[in-house]
Amino acid sequence: MSEAPRNQPATRTIRVNYMARVEGEASLLIRMKAGKIHDVKLKIFEPPRLFESLLRGRHLTEAPDITARICGICPVAYQLTCAHALERALGITVDPMVRLLRRFLYAGEWIESHALHVYLLHAPDFLGYPDAIEMARKHPDVIAEALRLKKIGNRILTLVGGREVHPVSVAVGGFYKTPSKADLLSLKEELKWALDAAVRKVPFVAAFEFPDFEQDYEFVALSHPSEYPFNEGRLISNKGLDIEAGEYEHYFVEHQVKHSNALHSRLRDRGAYQVGPLARFNLNYAKLPKIAREAAQSCGLHIPCLNPFKSVIVRAVEMVFAIDEALRIIDLYEPPSVPRVTLPERPGEGCAITEAPRGINFNRFRFDENGILQFANIVPPTSQNQQRIEDDLRAFVPGVVALPAEELTLRCEQVVRNYDPCISCATHFLRVNLEQEGASEPARPGDGAC
Amino acid sequence: MKSSAQAPRLAVFKFASCDGCQLSLLDLEDDLLTLAGAVDIAFFPEASSRMKKGPYEVGLVEGSITTHQDAGRILQIRRQCKTLVTIGACATAGGIQALRNWNDTAQWVAQIYPKPAYVRTLSTSTAIAQHVPVDYEIRGCPVNKRQLAEFLCALLAKRRPNIPTYSVCLECKRRGNACIAVTEGAGCLGPVTQAGCGAICPAYARGCYGCFGPMETPSAATLASYMQSQGTGADAVQRAFRSFHIFAWPNRQAADGPGDERKSQP
After folding, report:
1. Where does a domain end: B122, B157, B192?
2. Would the CB atoms of B205 and A120 count as touching at under 8 Å?
3. If chain A, 450 residues long, is cut into consecutive pieces of 10 residues, what is the mean pLDDT of each piece?
4. Are the C-beta atoms of A118 and A208 separated by less than 8 Å?
5. For residue B81, what is the domain's CATH number?
6. Angle, to 10 degrees, between the axis of helix A381-400 and the axis of helix A405-417?
7. To the nearest whole angstrom, how far is the Cα of A125 from the nearest Cα of chain B?
């Protein structure tokens, strides 16, 4: 590293050794040289747990319980994507009420995860607090309502699946046990409160101060003919992608970089893309229920929204959708005659994509005639957004590089938190490091050489 | 977060894990602000940007040791924490990722990563107690948030935490479930698994899959042969014990018999 004069603002390095308020372990390194971005590295030092290998040799019926352990915040996303992929491989179709109950369960996870991210992890960035507990001193009502919203999401998970984290009821072919209509009705009053509260909260979030920052994104999300997407649909983008789940691996490639334990996913020949709330909102706006569209319009949120910082408002709007959807399902639901269909004994291979709270999750599995898994490929949302986060930082930092180091670091962390990266999920993902050339800090022990 | 002269300093550390156990702290929705008032949450990166330096009265450790660096980090953490508590199956027994201890880890890495040389990981996933002395273990995959709250209350009141070491069967009877092993012949690890979850799997019409790990003095091998006598294949019985608490001794005996040839050392 060449010797550069110290305190020369044109040449500096931002280094955040341990990203706070993200799930999992990551760091960020940004090197500036002569006022230009020299290097941006989102480093995932989350130790690899090798899920795709440890699934080999397990019976397919065990897979949803195992893949759930990829992520404690969105276990349902893993359970359902896995169950869908295996069901397609087996050529079975689930009962329409099972499909509806799965949407209900997914809605619960979206409510819980979005409440956690919007109010407990991301809002403190915009309002200048280190965490939600400090924020609760000045905004006690906001945090109290946020926790109540989060709780109703968790009550859905607990009702359908027995517990909040790693629920136990999802089975290949359906559920181990399905709740009664009365069980679902018991949540209706609280969900009605939640719908009001979620609508009231949207203007609070929309009033945050947003940096003037827009990018030409390729947004990728599922698209269903009539529904805002959870579990099904074609995979589409605003730049012409329109494919079935089975074609995913032809269009997307995973690329390994030395600085990260998460594989970077890219669109073949096109590069980075964005998945998650902003992508879903921009591509599926018309399918949001009226109450969610009105909540967005009332605070001036229109499509296309190209400002990643505003993804926090989109999450608040998606909470309105998820609560509305849960209420709709309560009215429609009748317990299916059998909780799950009998699984045929045959070899198979199948894939599925669902919309986890943070974006699409792709799974492909292959198993033999005894149902023993031979192969698994799991591409979680954070792997898909990782390249996009680095690209956002590359574009964002030059505009704020004159800021004092502490504030600059905070702003960079905020860019990362726009994506709510779920680093533990990155099965195969960050530390913010802005280095002053010639005065770089020692690498954190535990970090790979880079 | 809050700083108070009397409040004990609490720290939360993460190793190889899914974050579900530390999320259980945030899932204490009704009691979260009360908890934050009673203890000084000094280090909890998943929830707060403010990270205070140690020492801490109590350290909650989530996750297992799978890297050389983490094996070093836990030694430093032990020195900083007066009371060290493992939360969940990964920290307590190596977690589902300990399946690698029976397999060729290098081959596994090569199956996933195009450039395996970039990935630095140990060939084993090991429990925290295999590296440093642990004062308490809170079981579960994930931990039960009520048990976690009970533990923290007991710690504040300076009393012994009320965490049962009996089997899931007792909870299952209290819940009024019909025994699904008896009535439906379901393979159920309830008889040898520590209580704490509330017997949710039998309540949801499936056998317990053992995510709270072995109870005190379990007869795991006996249950394994019983399951086989009831028609569960030997492979399926082995897989049942080789899951979220794969690296706990009684489960190894039940899954492997006497000829256990796993990699026991990192």
Report:
1. B157
2. no
3. 44 73 73 80 81 95 96 95 98 97 98 95 91 92 95 97 97 98 98 98 96 95 96 95 95 82 82 95 98 96 96 97 98 97 97 96 97 95 88 89 83 87 49 38 28
4. no
5. 3.40.50.700
6. 150
7. 10
